[in-house]
Amino acid sequence: MRINGISGGYSDGFFISDISFNIEEGKIYALLGLNGSGKTTIIKMICGLIKLKSGNITIGEKDLFTLKEKERAKLISYVPQSGTIVYYTTVVDVVLMGATPYLNMFQTPAQEHREQALECLEILGISELADRNYLDLSEGQKQIVVIARALMQKGTYMLMDEPESSLDLINKNKLMKKIREIIINMNKSCVISMHNPEYALNYCDRILLLKDKKITEIDLKTEDINMVEKKLSEIYGQVKILEYNQKYMLYYSD
Amino acid sequence: MNNARKHYSMKSNRTNVITFAVLIFAFVLSIGVGKYSLSIEDITKVLKGTHENQMTINVFYMLRLPRSIMVVLAGIGLSMAGSVYQTLFKNPLASPDIIGVTSGANVGAAFSIVFISGNVLSVVFGAFLGGLLALSFVIGIVKFSRTDNVLTYVLAGIVINAISNGILMTIKYFSDPLNEMGAIEYWTMGSFGSITGEKLKIILPFFIIGMVGIFLMRWKIHVLSVSDEEVKTLGISVEQSRYLILLCSTLVVASVVCVTGLISFVGLVPPHIARSILKRNDFNTIVFSGLLGAILMILSDCIARTILPSELPISIITSFIGAPYLAFLVCTKKKI
Fold first, then answer.
1. Which parts of the chain span the membrane according to its record (chain A) (predicted)?
2. I need a labelling partner for B129 at 20 to 30 A (CA). Which of A4, B14, B53, B94 fits?
3. What is the per-residue pLDDT across A196-219, written as a single tens digit (0 to 9) for each?
4. Tens digits of per-residue pLDDT, A94-112?
5. A12 at interface of B, judged by CB pairs closer than 8 A
6. In 10 A of CB B177, how many CB atoms?
7. Min CA distance, A67 vs chain B (Å)?
8. Considering the domain A2-252 in this protein, what is its CATH number?
9. Nearest residue on chain A to B147, judged by CA atoms?
């Protein structure tokens, strides 16, 4: 997927312009930036939730926004900060919503879709939750269910807007591990906006660093760790990357 | 199919069968009860065509049967529409009133009574057009505001309700206090007293079209229960689908209230009871709340026509049943 000079924003004046980067298959991208830097805006522009004022997004030769919503939903899935279910709904019914792009105007999901939904739950290791009420789940479980719904959409590109923000430390790590597992195993691509650079360092392949409405890309596989440290320091102030037990930690000094 | 799902579908089937049986019983009761009571024997004889008393035959075919059918349709229609509104607006307190449909219908009826004629047909069409007009205004406001979200619909509903109220007061001001004012007031309290086979025939096509629409779009209704952003990324055109579903449910509501007048709480209470019994909110729950609504409506109507020597408006009964239930929900903070 190529994001070519996209611009867009909200009616209150927040505007982000000329953003370009590529998303490769089988890779996880962390979108990092301070509060209000425009991470969510970028995610929403790619998902078609905020209209582009200029620029375009292409997948192969296809311009994403010449496609119908339904066709786009087969390519891109969106995972919000938290799912918004108001009433009693079973987990499998939430996941089944992911079959919607594959249904006709008046069609409802069939048994085959139900089986696919159960498969998605199995892939994410939460089959036992299938018939539970979504509202009774823990925040961590709810987030995995929403990811299962995104998986059900069968798109290559998954865009996640701070999916770990409402989770505790243990669940944050579990979730990130799970996301990495499915993206790598199923050769999908994922852009995750997040606050904590440690998760980016430990679970992602590349970092998209958003500062002053401009993107700087860091390839964690090839870039020297000192260079990464220097780039992160431009946003977060003086930081030091420490390595412990094959994991990275970040030390902040004021 | 695993055990929990099997258990749910068995429970759901069992509940539907029991509710349906109660509904049939209530329907027969509704045909029998009234100033001129009909026994089961009378009913079976009339159906077989062997009853000799012309008066009984007339009461059955001209009064009771159309009335009871209308009561059932009203209960099913208002409750199912209420359930759809609650799902669509993600708000357990949503009902046709919230987006101004009922107050629009009210204005339409009052307008017909005062400025056209008190003729039944004109009131029916007045109310019907009023309801649809209110919905079009709401959609228009939402379009112009360029923010298509649930809150905009609710705010637009408040605007329409306020305008309708203003128009209604103006109409009342110019109405003849002896006849027309009474007719308007009576209409706002709802009644099945004037239902005839003719009226039933007029509204039935609209009712059926609305219901078929709701049935066909049942999966979309389910998906629209999540946030607009999620719905969009699931490949549904939110605005278009919401208009269509609202149009269908408004068609159902308008086709009912244009002949019965306003009926309070029936769009609100049965969906809550249905959800708390089934512990789900899917299309089964919407259908189930329709059945419960029909039962509630029949019982209310039976009370309305038997409790006093003259018939009481139906909203008096439904309000006395619905409001305490709502208070109970608030006090117990039950999960809805």
1. none
2. B94
3. 899 999 999 999 999 888 899 999
4. 999 999 999 998 999 999 9
5. no
6. 9
7. 11
8. 3.40.50.300
9. A11
